[in-house]
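Practice problem 4.
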């Protein structure tokens, strides 16, 4: 949530990050109209779709990693079959 506390983000970036946060916390936030209207001031429809898809993909991978008790930096690629 550093986007709320620092001056280093543009209005477009702040609205995008706020959208990502509300999508990630959808069970709590239900993506409020205010967040949608704020992000739509800065992103066109295609950009919003892409941002939402990227957010949900990251959320999915995080849920999988948490569920399987994965530790950052410990993933190993499987060895190719001989």
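Answer key:
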């Amino acid at each position: 949530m550093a986007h709320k506390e620092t001056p280093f983000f543009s209005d477009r970036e702040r609205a995008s990050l706020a959208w990502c946060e509300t999508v990630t916390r959808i069970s709590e936030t239900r993506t409020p109209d205010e967040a949608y209207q704020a992000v739509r001031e800065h992103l066109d429809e295609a950009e919003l779709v892409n941002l939402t898809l990227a957010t949900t993909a990251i959320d999915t991978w995080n849920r999988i990693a948490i569920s399987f008790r994965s530790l950052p930096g410990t993933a190993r690629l499987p060895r190719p079959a001989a």
